[in-house]
Protein 1
Amino acid sequence: MPAFVNKEDCIACGACADVCAVDAITVDDVASVDPDTCIDCGACVEECPISCITLE
C-alpha cells in the first residue's frame, strides 16, 4: 500500500519529498503521494518530523 499523508497535520516542510527515491511526493499546501509511483519503501515515514505519514 502506498504512503498516506494525514493532511490535517502536515506542515508542508518537504522532508518527505526530499527522501523519496521515486519522486512520488509533491508538496504544495500539504504533501501528496502519487499511489501509482510510490514503492512503499517507508523512507518518508521515517523522515517526517511530525509523524503524519503512514503506510496503509
Protein 2
Amino acid sequence: MKIYIGNLDEKIQNSHLLEAFKDFGTVSSARVIKDHFSGKSKGFGFVEMPDEEEAVKTIKNVNGATWEGKVITVKKAFK
C-alpha cells in the first residue's frame, strides 16, 4: 500500500522517512517529493508498505502526529 505523508518539514529526507516508518513495519520505499528546479522539498512524500495491515495500522497511529514541529497528514495514497 502506498501512503501519502503531507506537511513535512523541508529538512526531512528520504532516509528520514524510511527510518521513521520502518518502526511500524516493512517499508519497500520512501520518497520525499522535491521541486525539479530548486531541489527543495515540496513538503510531502510517499512510503510504500507491502503489508496492507501494517500500512493501515501505521496510518491510524501516525496521522496527526507532530514531526519536527509540524502536524503531519498520513493517509492512503490514491493512484
